[in-house]
């Protein structure tokens, strides 16, 4: 029964349900975010022997969360041309979207990169929307976030990362919108309950399907984010021996970054055996389709560990300098485009 209710929601056919099912349908939608978050925690839970979570199940849960929020069928994520992100825009259905994707544009990011006049021409002349409907689309596009990730991985107090080191991850999640808002509720006309945007940061190895580190990120509580970033920058710079003037400057810079729409994510993982690792830093939004970003992270681990010298307990602290070499990020390898779905078509 639950599967059928989910199918009705994703295909926007809830109005066709028998009245006796309406209460169950609303209850299913109400508890869905909490259930999906618990599934996410299960997916990324560290497991022996290396303390890693599962990447593909985590991505699948987040994709389902996006589809439930926007009432978009999972099959649209697999369809050629990447139509799923466009179905969350007002007045657009699959028939209208296929008139412009992929014939005119190939992704939501490319569509957003057009000028307003170019988008209006596509929507009115090709997709058949009215001028007023085209303006509604523009209003929602201004709400959709653009996300960027800046990440550094280091061993505290060392220039290199060795086997067995406790590696600390410092990642800034940077969010921007065309309307200038730092926080906003998602445009979700088919979801009848209060829904806040949440983001998940994952540092993972896509080849081995392992999540090395994960954190849930919220942009709603700016005061808590300022406090956390301030403490992290203060501790980091003091531990590195910087003067009080430099420490204060780093704290002020962090506060300014948070106020401008960024959040600091911190975490640790144990360095694996010697080698070069090609990891990916993911940032997923649980409310919008097509806003996810991936950044390649190259991690080099040297032979031998210093556990006997420094011990195994390394406190989490954020860096305040930009000149750390180990674990620096590479160029963005994917942004704004949809990920291949890991779900079957059973619920579609």
UniProtKB/TrEMBL annotation:
It is a multi-pass membrane protein. GO terms for molecular function: protein transmembrane transporter activity; RNA binding. It is found in: Endoplasmic reticulum; Membrane. Residues 318-348 are annotated as: Disordered. It holds the Pfam family Sec63. Keywords: Chaperone, Endoplasmic reticulum, Membrane, Transmembrane, Transmembrane helix. GO terms for biological process: post-translational protein targeting to endoplasmic reticulum membrane; SRP-dependent cotranslational protein targeting to membrane. Its main location: endoplasmic reticulum. Gene3D superfamilies: 5' to 3' exonuclease, C-terminal subdomain (1.10.150.20), C2 domain (2.60.40.150), Sec63 N-terminal domain-like domain (1.10.3380.10). One of its GO terms (cellular component) is Sec62/Sec63 complex. Residues 4-297 form the SEC63 domain. Residues 323-335 have a biased composition (Acidic residues). It comes from the Eukaryota. PANTHER family: SEC63 DOMAIN-CONTAINING, TRANSLOCATION PROTEIN SEC63 HOMOLOG. This is SEC63 domain-containing protein. It comes from Vanilla planifolia.
């Amino acid at each position: 029964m639950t599967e059928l209710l989910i199918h009705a929601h994703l295909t926007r056919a809830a109005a066709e349900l028998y009245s006796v099912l309406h209460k169950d349908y609303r209850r299913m939608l109400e508890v869905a975010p909490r259930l999906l978050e618990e599934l996410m925690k299960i997916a990324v839970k560290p497991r022996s022997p290396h303390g890693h979570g599962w990447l593909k199940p985590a991505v699948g849960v987040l994709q389902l969360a996006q589809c439930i929020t926007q009432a978009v069928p999972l099959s649209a994520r697999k369809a050629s041309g990447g139509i799923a992100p466009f179905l969350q825009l007002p007045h657009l259905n699959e028939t209208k979207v296929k008139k412009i994707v992929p014939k005119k544009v190939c992704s939501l990011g490319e569509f957003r990169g057009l000028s307003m006049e170019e988008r209006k021409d596509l929507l009115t002349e090709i997709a058949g929307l009215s001028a007023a409907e085209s303006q509604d689309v523009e209003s929602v596009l201004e709400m959709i976030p653009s996300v960027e990730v800046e990440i550094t991985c280091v061993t505290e107090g060392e220039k290199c990362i060795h086997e067995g080191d406790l590696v600390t991850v410092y990642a800034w999640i940077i969010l921007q919108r065309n309307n200038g808002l730092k926080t906003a509720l998602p445009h979700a006309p088919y979801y009848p309950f209060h829904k806040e945007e949440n983001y998940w940061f994952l540092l993972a190895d896509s080849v081995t399907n392992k999540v090395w580190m994960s954190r849930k990120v919220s942009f709603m509580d700016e005061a808590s984010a300022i406090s956390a970033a301030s403490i992290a920058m203060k501790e980091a710079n003091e531990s590195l021996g910087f003067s009080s003037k430099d420490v204060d400057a780093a704290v002020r810079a962090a506060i300014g970054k948070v106020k401008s729409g960024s959040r600091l994510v911190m975490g640790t993982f144990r360095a694996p055996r010697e080698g070069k690792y090609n990891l990916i830093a993911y940032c997923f939004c649980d409310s919008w389709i097509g806003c996810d970003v991936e950044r390649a992270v190259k991690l080099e681990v040297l032979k031998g560990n210093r556990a006997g010298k420094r011990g195994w307990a390394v406190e989490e602290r954020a860096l305040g300098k930009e000149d750390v070499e180990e674990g620096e990020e590479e160029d963005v390898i994917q942004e704004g485009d949809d990920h291949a779905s890991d779900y079957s078509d059973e619920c579609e």
